[in-house]
Amino acid sequence: MAGITSLGVHTPVALPYLIAEGLLPHEPKTGLYSWETYVFAESQGEVEEEVLATKNCVVWSQGNFIRNVFRFDLEGEDLIQAILTKFPPSGDVGPKQGAKAQSDEGYSELNRDEGPSDLAPSCQEERPRSLERALVVFLKSKAHIYFLHGTNHVLDLPFEVARAFPAPRGAILQRKASSAPPSPPTPQIPAAPPNSFLSQLHPSSSYLQSPTLIKSFGSTQPNRPSPLTGKSRLDALFQDVLGSPSQRADDELAPLYTLTNPLSELGVITYSIQHPKPRLSGKTKPGMSVEFEPLDSAETVVYVSAVDELKSGKGHSQESLMLLVTINRDMQMCTIWHAWYIDEKSLSSLLKQRAAHKAAKARRRSSFLSVNIGTGATTPAVRNREGTRESFAGAGSMRLPGEPSGAHQLGASSRKPTRQEEEEAMASQMDPDYQPSASQQAARESRRISSLNTDVRASQHNVTASFGGPGGRRNASFGGPNERKSFGHRKSRGSTPGSINSRSLGPDDDLMDLDSSMDADGEETLESIVRHIRATFDAVGAESIFGGAGDNFKRELVVRKLHSFPLASGGSNLDHHANSIRVLTLMGRSPQHALNVYIHQRQAKDLMCLRLKIKRRSLWPEMPDSPSITIPIYLGETKLEQCNDIVKLRHDSVDAVLLGDRGLILSIDDRKPCSLPKPAPYRMYNALAMYSIEASVDRDIGRNRVLEDPDRSGLSLVNAGSNGRYDERTSDGVHHRRQLQLRPKDDFVGRLLEVCQSVLPSRHSKAIPTLWCLAHAFLLERPDQMERTTASTDWVAFATTVFVLVINMIDERARAALRVSSVAVSKTSAKPSSQLRQRQHGRQSMQKSTWSWMDEDRQRSGKASTTSPRGPSKASKGKDQLATIAAALAVELQQSAAPWASSHESLALSSSDAMRLIIGLHIFREEQKLCTLSSNGQDSNLLALVVAQLGTWYSLIPWSHETGQYYELEGASEERWSFVRTVDRLPPQLPLMDEPVGVFHWFEHALDVQSGERYPTLDVIANLSAEMLSSKARNEFAVQLTPRISKLSDMLEATSGLNASSTITVELMAKHGITREFMETLPDAIAAPFREAIVRCEREPPTTWSPELLALVGREDLVVKFNDHIITPPKPNATIAGAPRDVQSVCHALEHHPYNAKTKEASRHAVSQLIFHEDRRLIEATSLMHFNSIQVAECPKQPDWSDAHHFEQQRKMMQWVTVRMIALPAGDAMIHYDCQTPLLTDKYHLPGFSSACLMQPMGHTLTTDRSGLTEEKVNWAYFHAGVSVGLRVSHNVQGIDTSWIAFNKPNELTNRHAGLLLALGLGGHLRHLAKWLSFKYLTPKHTMTSVGLLLGLSASYMGTMDSLITRMLSVHITRMLPPGAAELNVSPITQTAGLMGIGLLYYNTQHRRMSEIMLSEVEHMELEDPDSGPDPLRDESYRLAAGFALGYINLGKGKNLRGLHGMYLPERLLAIAVGPRPVNAVHIFDRATAGAVVALALVYMKSGDGAIARKIDIPDTETQFDHVRADMLMLRAMTKNVILWDGIVVNEPSSGAPSWIQANLPACYKTRFEYITASSGRHPLKSADVPFFNIVTGLAWALGVKYAGSGNTHARDEILSVLNYFYMVKGGADAYYYDAKLARSTVRRCIDVLALAAATVMAGTGDLQTFRYLRRLHGRTDPETPYGSHFAAHLAIGVLFLGGGTYTLGTSNLAVASMICAFYPLFPTDVYDNHVHLQAFRHLWVFAAEARCLVVEEIDTHRPISMPIIVMLTSGATKALTAPCLLPDLDTIATVQTNDPAYWRVTLDFSSNPAHLAAFRKNQRIFVRRCPASEAHNSVFSSTLTALNSNNPLVPSSNNNDKQWQTTLLTSLPTFKDLDKADLELILPPSAGAAGDVHCALFTDERGTVVDDRLALTRSAMFGTERDELWNLRVLLAWAERARESGEDMRWLGEEVVEELRARVEERRRVVSG
């Protein structure tokens, strides 16, 4: 209203495109297309969008650009409508059960046995869900939904859509009414009755004509009647008699539906009816039930709330407000409805409620009636229906929270019903078939009841539907949908109150009419409305579990009628009538929220205003976290003056309703519209547009062409846009774009208006926007008034608005003078225009650059600058007449606006209100001083003028412009401004401030006296008035206007004047929202205490701080990332680690090329290079494990060899090398474990083996026969190769799912792909594998694939007991098939893998059934037929797998074998392991012993059970060793010590005690150990020593398992000493006889186990001493070294360099069990051997691998760096390490600290902060940030020296020259010449390290440093003349003085800087004084 602007003729943006593409003719008629305008709020502001729809095309445009075009030519259907709306994300369908399980647990304790226990979660579980915008295009039979981010869906529609409306969640659909067929002229022969035998033989076919069935949209039960409103069978009989057509009438279908999700079904819109239940005696509140009915088919929607009417932005749908407006074509009535969404309940709450119902139904009771009412045996047991009709789901009879529970008895019984009676009553009401436990006869059978009851019972039993349709179990209704009558208490059902036929037959109907009983305030019925809404949630939830809905459509939107009124007669065409009705809403801003609904009838030009009051109540008051619901209450209706059309305009936060030419309504209290200003001429083009398409077509037409004014009578208002834009559409279809300014363009003035609204009473605050608009319109019509001031039109209008409220303070003489001056100005005109003067003023203020002060002359005078607002403007030599102009306009506006003001109350402010206004404007002005980015000084001076003028009028001397007063010093002086004077009067009393108090003064006072006194805020000022009721919304709105004062007041109050410690201060800063960005805009003095607290906490912040607190102090490097780490390669130009530059390294690099890591492994390689930067051990180990590269062997020619013999020896050597090569993948998998992120779009390469061998020393390359390296010949080798490549895939990679696996699936299943499946399963990626693909893998019965897939799935679902995986495993295990089932043709290897899969799947569950199966397979004693040979299935490998599976199921549960009592588990296992062996079953016991021993080891692991340990221990005497298999001695020795875990303690060599291994040897072997050692390897090999060798190895193996991954050098040395001993034994004697060869073979196997045990202790460390032994083992190329020995050696090398040095092994129960399984001491003799141990189990070490490598990265560059750290253990000991490195066991660590003074210290506190430990287990990377030299060192000398060293040109750096140039340039500037080197480093970080990178945070985050603050303060001290600048210095020095008195060091600025500032201020004081 402030001004109307013409924006030219408005045409769709996409229209030229459609014309150019030939989709529309050259000059299309408006009937060929339709278009709508939408306004969406974006981050940059409101954006206008257009949707243009033609017959087969839709174009979406945004702004002036086309975003997307959708064509529907191929659909074969015409386009009906296209809308823009919002949906939940496409993947979010319904309630997410996974996310809601936790919320259900949270409510379990609150609910217990209370009423809301099953109902509240349906509302509580709803979480704010982000909505995504989508374009919905409706065709005749389908709807296309296009999400704007790219996803699209196609939805089949069960009906044709007449019209669609955007809704807060999706869309509302109006079903198109079908034309009714003509009735037959004569009655027809009636059909068979519904209950006759004939009707049962020939069921009705009406369901076949159901549109829902035809469109496949719903139920699978064809005998169900039509949805929602099907007819009863009595109605069907009447229709048959009258000859109704077979097709259902149109009014039987619901007219309105909801589309809330593209992936869910449509929902029906129903309205709810509430009625009370009979009140029980002694109860004060009756019960309440609800019924649901669809809206009348005659209802047509004309308005739907597209967004929340309250604009609250809440996530809960209950807290928003949604309205619907419909018209009834039959009754000619208009109805407004309140609507709310009802979401589905979670599965847990539904199951809980269903279980309670089933429990109640299982019991029987006598009768609904009390036993006191019975009249004898002949009295029928009638069910009490409480005189009410039930809802669809029986919800009408369900007990609501807060209602009386129990059975409703007819007798007057005062006793409280028992719990059983309450449950029986609930069950009986929910299920009509429920029979009470005490009943002697059926409720429905063998009863003598009246015929009426019989009919009613029959209708309940057969029809059971509302209005005769299918539905809940409820009382019967008679009549069709137009004659709805029922028995019992119920409310009017019709959508219009005038329908007699729609009323129910029952008493007290009028008592339940909410509309008639509701008073003007609505408080009396508010509680019943809340209970009504709660009942709807109850009823809808009950339908889903009790099956009472009976519909094909779900209920998602429930409506409640608010009011109805008759429409004016204006034609019978419904469509025309509906389109001619316009509905708008306008929200009030008062604390007591109110809403006006304006309904305009275009034909009759009538405008009706309905007033609603908005209330908010808790939905579940008894629950603490209950959501709130919004309840609209109808207050009344008012008929306004007629107008042609209405439209709702929005300009930022201002809403208004334009009533055609009648005027504008800005407030809901406006009874008369404000008149509009003179309309602007109609332009052809928008003069403000940058280009015009039309102008480019016809250049003869000027851009300023003006059109003739259209006929006003035929104008309609359409296409409301942003910023007050709308279209005036003429009768010929031309759209004229207009803009009406509703708020100031100056944002500062707009906030000032909001300040006035917040502090003034409601009657005045509502008039503020209108007054400003009127004043602005006056000024636009009189531009001559602006020539005497430099202020903008917005500012003058604001001053006028304020003066209107207090204009009564001016006497008549002053008013006359103002009128004379106004008339004089209007007769004279000045030459220079005000617009020109304002432009000149703007240019002057922008001439100086932001940093121009840096180059100014240091000797300039201290005079004020030319841009200072204190002096008069150069454009005018006289005073500024702003106050005079505003006062004169206020006088005139008060007189001209009298008719409009009469609709309001008196606009004159009382004295108290005026004082609050003055103080509020003052507070807002002080708020601007706290922001350095606020508007310029001109706005502050203008506001000072307004406040000073108000103070002058009210004779408030301290607030006036008198000389020496506050505002005179602030710029409101008579030298510059012209003031309006009036007669003096008695000044009123100010409530808070007798005189103005500035924020600087207040802050200084708080620092001086250490006071927590708050500065007044706008909410405090507003609450001083008794008329203004305090509300949360008003207070929040006031705080938003003064956020800085509020935050500072909170801080001062919480810290008692900033007298708290630095840690507490920082925590309170985060609590009250004081961020780093907030402090950047605070004045330096105000921010000084907060910056000081941050600096004090910056070095070592508490370890318990949250990420927000760490970011506040600038320590983002301490933020522990809880998400899984993502491997990102470093930058290409990054120097990952400093390369050695010595001559030896350079020469060595020429001979041996360094190992170049692949791109996918670059990040891992960067870390590994830092770990092993001293030598090439990792590169050597990696090259040794390369199985797909050329192998290297050495076979020198002997002097007596011929060339042919030499070649033959080389061939043999190549065969032995090939055997070693096929054993390499096991070690390669460990070295490259978890290092790659594969590209999902590429095939994952699975390499094979190399067939070439480089023979040294001649350098010949020989090639082996490829036929011997095929997958059929060396199947397990290729399987291990696939596992090796698959284990490289990182655990945290996303996207390894069914599609990726199927993409990499070969056409022919291979062993390598089988290994890949196992590796993916070990990494947890097979959890995303679809089950159908699993069966596709298993169908061909490829053995390797079955093994890999079954083990992989079990590993991925470890410990879950997944039923589908269990069935999948069961069909592959003969023992788990049902009795009598045919055995499948499954290989024994597959069955062995299946057993282990069961163990993994049921890991740690103690499942009894599975434990019984595994135990039975271990001890299976079926005697074998000697003729058929041994059992091919139950060999040692199979029984060992069963033992491992039994151990995994009961891992470490030896002391608590719950659920296994009666199985005698230890006795049965010991009987097999150490018990006597029958002669006929020795071979069976021999194969079962290993499985039993392993099972005992795993079950009783770490239990300390001495009895079990003694029984499983090795025999006591040497003679008994002959009766035990030698390798079992090794297992038993290991098992005994694993059970007695705490007894394994390694002794230090310095203690003099014998080694642990020697101390635990049997007494008979202790001397032999010393004897063999003393023989120096000359002891002969004999089989008698084989038990001794195995026992020693078993003890060493147990020692290695105990200290796995610890890096304990004493344990390593003890194991290596035994290994040396075995080397001496093996190499000291020759083996010619079988006895010696047997002993030598045992020694070789023991050496393999010992090497693996030593590597286990040093896992991941790359220990050189251990690596020397392993290289020796790898170099074995002789015929005596089998495949298994090579396999063990390569496993040991892989363990030693596990994960490239970033992984190690753990000692948890699972880790120990996995190491025992993977490192089982009996290795295969060849590549096919699986008789003893399945080779696939060798990769289960993955479960023992732990990521404990601490990686330190610079936060600015994300490059790993080397840094010393200090690890403090829980025992108090400390370790000094250098990261990246492996940490000790995390459970033994207390803290980890970085120890590099060049970087900020980072501390991980595992003991005090569990979040640190949990986060480190997921991500082992920590980030550090380089700190300034001044913080890194305590002394000035050391900090300066460090800064000089970092800039030393002798330091090699690539950017050293640039660094020196930058330093020289900066130090040459006058501003920086006084900075020392340490301060200079803050501006230019040193070039050494990564801090010199251009990506350093100092260059990218644009945050200031202390140098910036020092320079700004120095400049203010030297040249500052502004009052605020001087106050800033004064407060800063006051704070420094307080810090000095308290003895604290000022670490932020420094003592020297403060003293320098103090000296400069003192020097200026002397100059001014002198």
List the keywords.
single chain; 4-stranded antiparallel sheet; 9-stranded mixed sheet; Anaphase-promoting complex subunit 1; alpha+beta; 1970 residues
Question: What's a quick, concise take on this entry?
Answer:
The chain has 1970 residues and is an alpha+beta fold. It is built from 67 helices and 45 strands.
Task: Report what the structure shows.
The protein is α+β, with helices and mostly antiparallel strands and 1970 residues long. Among the domains are: 4-175, no CATH class; 188-248, no CATH class; 267-375 and 385-404 and 416-567, no CATH class; 747-839 and 879-994, no CATH class; 1289-1356, no CATH class; 1856-1969, no CATH class. The chain is built from 67 helices and 45 strands. The strands form twelve sheets. Strands 10, 11, 12, 13, 14, 15, 16, 17 and 20 form a nine-stranded mixed sheet that branches. Strands 1-32-31-30 form a four-stranded antiparallel sheet, with no helix packed on it. Strands 2-3-4-5 form a four-stranded antiparallel sheet, with no helix packed on it. Helix 54 (1609-1628) runs antiparallel to helix 55 (1634-1657) and helix 65 runs parallel beside helix 67 (1951-1969). It is elongated. The relative contact order is 0.04. About 18% of the residues have low confidence. This is Anaphase-promoting complex subunit 1.
